[in-house]
C-alpha cells in the first residue's frame, strides 16, 4: 500500500540562477525529486549557444553530431520486421579521428580548459545557430530520422493519452508486486494521478527554481503503448515539435542490448553509429543529448546498482553494468536518460536516482469505442456489437482499457461474429471468461483470418494439422520464459527449444510471436502480448502434465516424481500462490480455463484433445479453494483463485457471497473462502463498482482482511456495523495511503467516539481522494469535531461532511466554524441534531461571512432560536455562496423570521430555505411574503408545521402571484382552510413558476379543493399537488376530475386520507380516460369500495401514461384486491399498483 522503501523519487533540489540560456516553465512550485543530478554539474556556459569557449565546443560537437545523426538506424520497430539495407548515410568527408578525440573528452565530462577546442569537420563550417537553427545539414538529419519512423503517428496526430502523461511521485505496492492484469483489475482501469505533464514538457523543469531531469522513467502495463510513445516522441522531435532543447535523440531498446554480453561505452555508440569506425568515440553526442532505453522489463539480466563504478569509456563490462553506470552518471554524466518499463521492473532503478516518473494511461470509454471502430472501418454494426460484448463482462471491459488487449479482444470477437453470423449462435458462443476470449483468438490465428482473400498461405493447412505440435514447442519456450521472467527470445533460444524459425512465418505463429531485427542483425522474437505468452505456456503445461513424471517447473532439475494431471495442477497452483510478484497469476487462470467444457469444445482437435482432463474440473476447483487459507489480509493471490474458479465456471462460492451481500447476510460467512470471494466481488461486481454496500454485515476481523481491496473502492457504505475506535484506526491507515482511491465513505450509525474521529482526522491531513465523509449517528462529541475541523483547515479535497447526531454542541460547532473560515473546498455540511444553541450559531454566522465555498448548511433539530436566526441572517446579507439553509425545528419565531426575510431581500444566492416545525405565525408569514415579492433567486420554501392559519397563507398567496422564482412551496399542517385555498387557487392562475404545492393535512374541504381545481384548468406549470388528509369529499374530487380532463401538466396527485367515495372515484376515472400527463395517483384510504376501485381499474384501459396507483385501505378485501390488481395489469401493463 505505502511507497516501498527506496522507490521514492529523489527529494534533493537544485536551483539555477537565471541566465540567457535558462528556460523557465512558468510554474511556481517544485515537484519532489525535481532537479536532482548525479555526476558533475554542467556549467551554464556549456549549455549556452552564445560564442565563447563553451559555445565553440558545443557548436563544433553539434556539427559532428549532425553527421552522426544521419547514421542512426531504426531500433524502434516492435510491430514490423525491418528489411536490410538500412545502413546509415551522410558520412562526412575526411578523417574524423581528431574531432572524435576532442568530442570524447568533452562528453566524458572532462574540462576543456587548457586544451584546444576541436576543429570543425571538413566541409562543415562553424555555425552560430542553436540546435534548432536553420542549418541545412541539421534539417537533412531530421528528415532522415523522420523517414525512418514515418507511419508511427496516427493520421490525426498522436493520441491525447500519449501526449499527456500522468506525473507520479513513485511506485505503489500494487505496481511493485502485482501482475499487470491485477493492477488494471484492482484499480478498475482508472489511471489515477494528481497531475499530468505534456510530452513537449516531459524533460523540462517543473518550476522556476529547478533544472531539467537527468533520469526519467515512464512506466506502463504491458501493451499500453510504451514503444509507441517512444516512436511518437522521436518523430515529433525530428519534426522539431518536442524536445527542442536536445540536439540529438538516441533511441535504443533492451532487445538490442541483449545481443551483447559485454560492451564498453565506446562500442555502445559504435553499435548505433557503425560509420564512426575504431576511432575511440567515448560519448554519444553533445551534452544536449537524450538517450532512450526502451523496455527495461525485457533486459535479460536484472540491473544491479551495487557494482563497482566504471568511468572508463573503453572498458568492456557487462551490459547491465554499463547501463547502471550510465544511470548513476559515471558514464555520460551530461546526457539525459529516458527509460521505459513495466511498473514492477522499474523498481530496479533506485528511487534516489530518478528525477521524474511518469505513466502512460490506458484507454478511456471513448477511446475503447474509437479503437473498435478503427478496427472495423465502415462496419458500425460489427463494431457496436463487439463493444456491447465487452461491456457485458465487466472484467473484460476493464482489461480493454489496455490498448493491446482491446485490439486482441476486438479481433477475437470480430472473428466470432464472422464465423457464427446468426444472433443466436454468436450470443451462445460469446466469451464469458478470459480463456474463452483467447481461445477464439487462437481459432482466428489458426484459420489465418485477416489475410487477403485469394492469397491464403499454402502452409495454412499444414499449420492446422500440426498446430498442437507447434504450440507444444512454442509453449515450452513460453513456459520456460515465464518461469525465468524472460519475454524476449533469440535464435539460440528457439533452437534450444526445437522451434523452427521457418514455421514462424505461418498464420498461427505470426499472430502469436513477432520477429524484430536488432542492431546486431540478430533477430529478436517476442509474443505479441504478455498474456499470449501466458496462454500458450498454459496450453503447453496442460498437455505436458499428462506425461511428465517430474515437476515441470524445475526444468530438468532433480525433483520428486509427480504423476497425473491433478498433481501437476496442484504444483502450478502452489507456485502461483508463492510467487510474490504475481507473474503466474494469469497463467494459472488460463490453465484453469482450459478445463472448462466450453473452452474444450472451442479448441478440440486443434490445441486440445477432445475431452482430455474434463473429469478433473470439480477436483481442480476443490484444489483451488483449498489454497484459500486463513490469513491477516486477503492478498491478490487469493483473489486470483476466484478468477481461476470463474474460468473453470465453478462460480458457486462467488454467487453465494453475492447473494449474502444483497440480503445483508454476510455476517454468517466468516471463512477465508468467503472473505476472498467478497474481495473478488469488490473488484468485478457491477453493483460494487458504483458503491460497495457492506452495511450490517462486517466485523473488525473481516474488515481487516479486506483492507487492501477497500483501498480501491470508489464508494464505501459501512453503516450500522457496530464499528468502534480501533476500526477507525484501520480505516485511517487505508485513507492515508498515497494510492487510496476511496472517494465516498459512510460510517453512519456505528459506535465511533472522539478517538475514532481523531484517527480519521489524521488521515484527512494527507488523503487526496476522499470527497464525502458521513459520520451521522455516532458519538464523536466536541473533541472529535475539533479534530476533524483542524484537518479541514489543511484538507483540500473533502466536499461533503455529515456530523448529524454526534452531540458536538456549541464547542464543536465553534471548531467547525473556525475551519470554515479557512477551508475553501467543503460545500456541504450537515450538523443537525447536535444540541447547537445560539452561541454555536453565532460562530457559524461569523464563518459564513468569510466562507464562499459552502453551498449547503443543515442545522435542523438544534436550538439556535431567534438569536441564532438573526446572526445567520446577518451573514446571509454578505455571503454570496450558500444555496441551501435548513433551520427546521429550531424554535424560531416571527422575530427570527423577520431577520431572515430581511436578508432574503438582498441575498442573491440562496435557493432553498427550510423553516419547518418552528413557531412562525401569520405575522412571520407576512414578512416572508414581503421578501418573496422582491427576491428573485429562492426556489424552495418549506413552512410545514408552523402556525400560519388563513391569514398567513393568504399573505403567501399574494406573494406567489408576483413571484417568478419559487418552484416548490410546502404549507403542510398550517391550519389552513378554504379561504386561504381560494387565495392560492387565484395565485396559481397567474403564477408560471411554481411546480410543486403541498397543502396536505390542512382542512381546505371541498370548497378549497374546488378552488385549486379551477386553477388547474388554466395553470400550465404545476406538476405535483399534495392534498392528503385535506377533508376533501365527493364534490372536491369531482372538481379535480373535471380539471384533470383539461390539465396537461400535472404529473403527481396525492389524495390519500380523504373521503371521495365511489362518486369521486368515478369522476377521477372519467378524467383518467382522457388525461395523458398524470404519472402517479394516490387514492389510499378514500372509502372507494369495490365499485370505485373497479371504475378506476376499468378507466386505465385507455390510459397509457399512469405509472403508479395506490388503492390501499379502501375496504376492497383480498379477493377484490386480486381482481382489481389483475384488471389493472391487463388494462395498463406499465402501471404498478399498490392494493
From TrEMBL:
Source organism's superkingdom? Answer: Eukaryota
Residue span(s) of domain NACHT? 214-344
What compartments host this protein? Cytoplasm
Task: Give the GO terms filed under biological process for this record.
Answer: canonical NF-kappaB signal transduction; negative regulation of canonical NF-kappaB signal transduction; negative regulation of immune system process; negative regulation of inflammatory response; negative regulation of interleukin-6 production; negative regulation of tumor necrosis factor production; regulation of innate immune response; regulation of primary metabolic process
Instruction: Please provide, alphabetically and separated by semicolons, the GO molecular function terms listed in this UniProt record.
Output: ATP binding
Give the residue ranges for region: Disordered.
1-60, 111-131
Instruction: Give yes or no: UniProt keyword Repeat.
Output: yes
Alphabetically sorted, this entry's keywords are: ATP-binding, Cytoplasm, Leucine-rich repeat, Nucleotide-binding, Repeat
InterPro entries per record: Leu-rich_rpt, LRR_dom_sf, NACHT_NTPase, NLR, NLRP_HD2, NOD1/2_WH, P-loop_NTPase
- Look up keyword Translocase and say if it applies: no
Please give the GO cellular component terms listed in this UniProt entry: cytoplasm
Q: Name one Pfam family in it.
A: WHD_NOD2
The family database entries (CDD domains) matched by this protein are listed as: LRR_RI
Check the record and name the SMART domains matching this protein: LRR_RI
What protein family does this chain belong to? Belongs to the NLRP family.
Q: How does it assemble?
A: Directly interacts (via CARD) with TMEM173/STING; this interaction reduces TMEM173 trafficking to the perinuclear region in response to interferon stimulatory DNA. Also interacts, but to a lesser extent, with TBK1. Interacts with TRAF6; this interaction results in decreased TRAF6 'Lys-63'-linked polyubiquitination, but leaves 'Lys-48'-linked chains unchanged, promoting TRAF6 protein degradation. Interacts with PIK3R1/PIK3R2; this interaction disrupts the association between PIK3R1/PIK3R2 and the p110 catalytic subunit PIK3CA/PIK3CB/PIK3CD and reduces PIK3R1/PIK3R2 activation.
Q: What is this protein called?
A: NLR family CARD domain containing 3
Q: Which organism is it from?
A: Suricata suricatta
